[in-house]
Amino acid sequence: MRGILAVILAGSLLLTGCSGLPTSREMGDMALLRTMGVDSASGAVEVTGSTGPRARGLQAEGEPALVLSAQGESLSAACLAMQGLSDNYVFFGYVDQLLLGEGLAKSGVMPVLDYFARDTELGLGAQLWLVKDSTAGNAVESGGEEGIEGRLATLQTDGKLGVAAISRTVGEVYTDLMELGSAFVPAVVCGEGDDTSLMEAGYGVLKDGSLLGYLEGEDARGLEILKSRAPAEVLTLELREGQVSAGVISASTVPTILLREEEPVGLELKCLVEVELTEYSRPLSKETREECTAFLEEKLLRRLESTLDRLQGWKADCVGLGIQAALFRPEMWNRAEDTWADWFSRLEPEIHVKVTVHE
Amino acid sequence: MKRGEISRTQLTALFWAGVLAPAGELLPGLLLPLTEKGSWLSVALAAPLVLAGGWLMGRLAGTKGVARNLMEKLGPIVGRGIILLYMVWAQVLLTWNLRASARRLLASGDRDGSLWFFLLALAGVLLWIGRGNLGAFARAGQFFLAALLAAALVVLALSVIQARPERLLPISWREGPELARGALDAAGVVGWGLFAAFLLEEVQDRTEKKGWHWVFWGLGGILLLATAQAIILGNLGAGLAAKLENPFFALAKSVGVEGAFQRVESIISSLWIFSDLAMGGVLIFAMRSMAAAALPQKSEVWIPWICVGFAAGASLFLSPGTALEALMSGETISRGNVILGLVLPGVLCLLVKGTDSAKGRSISCEKKGGQGADIGG
What we know:
heterodimer; A: alpha/beta; GMP Synthetase, Chain A, domain 3; 9-stranded mixed beta sheet; 4-stranded mixed beta sheet; 15 strands; 35% helix; globular; B: mainly alpha; 13 helices; 77% helix; disordered C terminus
């Protein structure tokens, strides 16, 4: 009986707060950040966070987005400084969108990615975006009372469905930077005038953690084909029998490294692309189909050559063509791995595009 | 302890439930700097070593159990010496286990809390388990393993689609020596379970299909660990995984099902306590078994108090950067497990066999001498 009484008393002591348990927090007293923007600001780091309109706990549902911004010598210092700006406890555990300003991307993104990898609240699953020609702070604030969470979530979902640019997580980009030395990140731009919503702007290419440049338009679509992803586009062709429109439904690229006396001399890419006619006046004749196929193959070939030329110029194999080609050739990869970026820039590309047209 | 309380399946369930926590903590740190993207292969290559270790410990256990067999075959002095060596090592592992578990709980709460609180709470639960009934603990072990596997499989299944083969391959035959060293380290990590062999004397049926049972569970477990390692590397790559304190929990943080759940790492982290409890319980019951064999006239009631008390005290006052902490590094623990789970049992099996042969010859000579006397008489 005495033993039971002692246990009950000890348990009661824990309830009074005399325990080493973490301090409890009520959901209603927390500002749950959903989006985080990081910029470099004259030697310091600036963090802008947004809760989104419904992310401050159930009691505050429907309130406008809370946007907080703080500076610090490092990212962790800026995040800590943010705590003092709100009446609520600022919780970073729900951050699922990370925007990086162009300035920060040029100076180096590795410390930010590293912080996301190690921090207890933040995680590698957050979606990563580059803000072209502007700061992440501007992009976060551009959402106004509604916040930009909805727009980013739509872009992310569309990317997964294949109707927008490839969406990428912090973990995917960080892994590519560690394994390949370079990575591509979807870029967004703030709209001008009255419409300030975020728009897609191709991909930013990072090498050794710093931004090299952007792939936009045809080059961005070329990158998607190199990544074996069908670009979200409809191609319009003027053929002898009239105008037809075709959507790309699948793309697959198989790279092979061509060797001469065990030395890499060329990069062969076999691209298989399937398109489906979306608009046409009547079933295509054999000749028109051949004309359509030849037109598309030529167009996609030019596009891939242009994309590859940009990547080779940057010495950035951000798609991992080299390692994919060497998957079962360890001896060759052993020789080329350390200097692959240089090899990649010198290899003569040999691209074969085969298009299959479905009606 | 009562004899014949648990089944062979319950013992192997406790073995693998207990091994999961040290595997998650130690395997990345030991293997990734050495074998990089070949880490998953090193774990798979450890299978023969793990099976051999289990087989040798089983041989050493015979029908009476490891501790009693050592006392009987090698005599009280040598037998007690070897049992003492195993007991000291079990105490080291228990201390490491308790400390790692408390630190993980502390880290999952964003270091907002006290290490001593988690340490004492875990020590209390372990003491309760260790003073209790082995049969009840073994039944709980099956539940622990089921819960741990379910949680791990959810994380791995959600991650496997994002894994890339180019983060696991190519692996050159030139990396053979590193892979072999990695396999030894991986075997050392799985060797945490070596003390489960000291509970073989409590197994109801020690003869029926025991070889195949261990092959099935041993091989299955090690292949599951290798697959888990491959999925982690396929997602994070060797470089990033090596930078993280625990890549499995980092992976758990980044998986989720849209519209259902987004963050599962807290649940995974909480469930991992089952593994710590399984391993801690196995170590305490093994020490009880060893103490009962080495000092049969003494009561074993105080063994759990001494073991858990020492482990909690050592964990609490083990300052970072001291020689004792360095001694308890993952590398030392792994090598110690290989020595005590594979090398020493091999030597002891030979010694026991030699002793049996000598006794056999002696009996045979006595019989022959007797016959001669009879014939001569």
